[in-house]
């Protein structure tokens, strides 16, 4: 039995629910679906009992926030993204092996760091985990780890990041 976590794009684009998989999502996803078709897909999956709408516990959300911050992903992940990833951690703690369905590179990247599989619908999944170089657009220094408040400790400019090759 695969345990599959669906993000907003899965409902917008349509994801074929199979009988030998269990599906999970967080309630915030429904709020993000703008189109009627996507909402119908969500409601249909939920009322059929195939989709479990679950809010992850607070400790798991905090852990995702800490891990995202440590890897420089925190600004790329929405609150809903973090909840979906936290749900993955919670499932993992219950002995399950979550697979995350998301077309968002930051979600995929973070899922991989947290030790989950991920699949992408529209885009091809990233081949390896990206690591980021944090750099200062002001004085051109680079940093291996996130800096306090995301500002350059030397000149005070807001830091940016780019994928490391
Ligand atoms: Zn600087």
Radius of gyration: 17 Å
Low-confidence stretches: none
From the 3D structure, determine the CATH topology of the largest domain.
Answer: Rossmann fold
Percent helix: 25-40%
Main β sheet profile: 5 strands, parallel
What is the count of β-strands? 8
Q: What is the H/E string?
A: EHEHHEHHEHEEEE
CATH superfamily of the largest domain: 5'-nuclease
For the record, the CATH class of the largest domain is Alpha Beta
Question: Which molecules are bound in this entry?
Answer: zinc ion
How much β-strand is present in the residues?
15-25%
Mean pLDDT reading? 87
Number of helices: 6
Backbone structural class: alpha/beta
Report what the structure shows.
The chain is α/β, with parallel strands linked by helices and 165 residues long. It has two domains: 118 residues, 3-Layer(aba) Sandwich (Rossmann fold); 34 residues, Single Sheet (Rubrerythrin, domain 2). The chain is 36% helix and 19% strand. It is built from six helices and eight strands. The strands form two sheets. A five-stranded parallel β-sheet has the order 3-2-1-4-5. It has a three-stranded antiparallel β-sheet with strand order 7-6-8, with no helix packed on it. Bound molecules: zinc ion. Zinc ion binds next to loops.
Put the structure in a nutshell.
The chain is of the alpha/beta class.
């Amino acid at each position: 039995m695969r345990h599959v976590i669906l993000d907003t794009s899965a409902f917008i684009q349509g994801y074929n629910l199979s009988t030998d998989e269990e599906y999970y999502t967080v309630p915030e996803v429904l709020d993000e679906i703008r189109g009627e078709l996507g909402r119908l897909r969500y409601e249909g999956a939920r009322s059929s009992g195939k989709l479990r709408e679950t809010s992850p516990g607070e400790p798991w959300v905090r852990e995702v926030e800490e891990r995202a911050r440590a890897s420089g992903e925190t600004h790329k992940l929405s609150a809903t993204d973090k909840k979906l990833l936290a749900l993955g951690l919670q499932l993992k703690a219950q002995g399950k092996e979550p697979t995350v369905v998301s077309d968002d590179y930051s979600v995929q990247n973070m899922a991989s760091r947290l030790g989950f599989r991920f699949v992408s619908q529209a885009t091809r999944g990233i081949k390896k985990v990206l690591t980021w170089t944090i750099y200062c657009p002001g004085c051109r220094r680079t940093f291996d780890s996130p800096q306090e408040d995301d500002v350059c400790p030397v000149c005070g400019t807001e830091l940016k990041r780019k994928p490391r090759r």
